Amino acid sequence: MFADRIPVGRVVSGGGYMATDEEKEHVFQVIEQLVDAIVSEVAEGHYEALTQEPQLTSKIAGAIEHTIKQVDLGDLNVQVEVRDFPAQGRGALEGKVGADVYISVAVIPENREDVSKGMLAQAKWDHSAKDPKLPEQIGKMMERSESSYVWVYGPNGVTCYPAGDYINPDSAGAGGQSVGSLIANGLRCKQGDRRIGRDLTKPLITSLNEIMEELGVLTAVSFTIREGKRRLRFYRRRRGRREG
User: Fold this and answer.
1) Tens place of pLDDT per residue across the chain (244 aa)
2) What gap in Å lies between CA 235 and CA 202, rounded to an integer?
3) For 228, which DSSP code?
4) CA of 152: how far to CAs of 13, 27, 31, 176, 177, in Å?
5) Is 0.70 topped by the overall pTM?
6) How far is CA 189 from each of CA 35, 48, 107, 129, 231, rounded to the nearest angstrom?
């Protein structure tokens, strides 16, 4: 559906080349445009349906993962991973932070200055955006991280509002951005919270499972960008202490 919109980059030879700022920005823009196109199509397709917000969030995350998954753009590799935990039954998580979805953004560059950040979001249809439960949900998210957002699903896509502004009627109509913009800005290190970033010393799935359990979030979507030779290592193990 969207695969033809992904530009094909050359495969990295593993020579340790560091991407330029312009090349990185190109990747951020590609991610933003792809995510926004996917999110808009899925949201529009379910607007007249009876799909509940958590289920739609999971569908959107799955569509993003299916479309992008893993792609080389120049000397950068983009990997998308999604995890869903059951809402009920064995293995179900308690909603500790009032969020529907956890967004992980991680940049693993050649110079080893790794960055891992997280964001939280509660999703609402535009016709239920004044849900009386929302202030409590926002309060729980904000207690854990200021990088918390309200995603409003509408007929033409999704708008993300900072959670702290959304509860203020005078500012709820301002400051919105798209999901693609939110993720791209996280990868640019302009948004996101290091305190809830996934642990890059562990395998991706392990680290996502752990942060989801810690936060009590049912859906997680992870964007990881690796550069140069770092593409060959999926995670960085902690070095053990030397004896003596």
Assistant:
1) 454 555 544 333 344 567 888 999 999 999 999 999 999 999 988 888 868 888 899 999 999 999 999 988 888 999 999 998 866 544 445 567 889 899 999 999 988 899 999 999 999 988 877 788 888 999 999 999 999 999 999 888 899 999 988 766 554 455 689 999 999 999 999 999 999 999 999 999 999 999 999 999 989 999 999 998 776 555 555 554 433 3
2) 6
3) G
4) 42, 26, 20, 10, 10
5) yes
6) 18, 36, 9, 29, 20
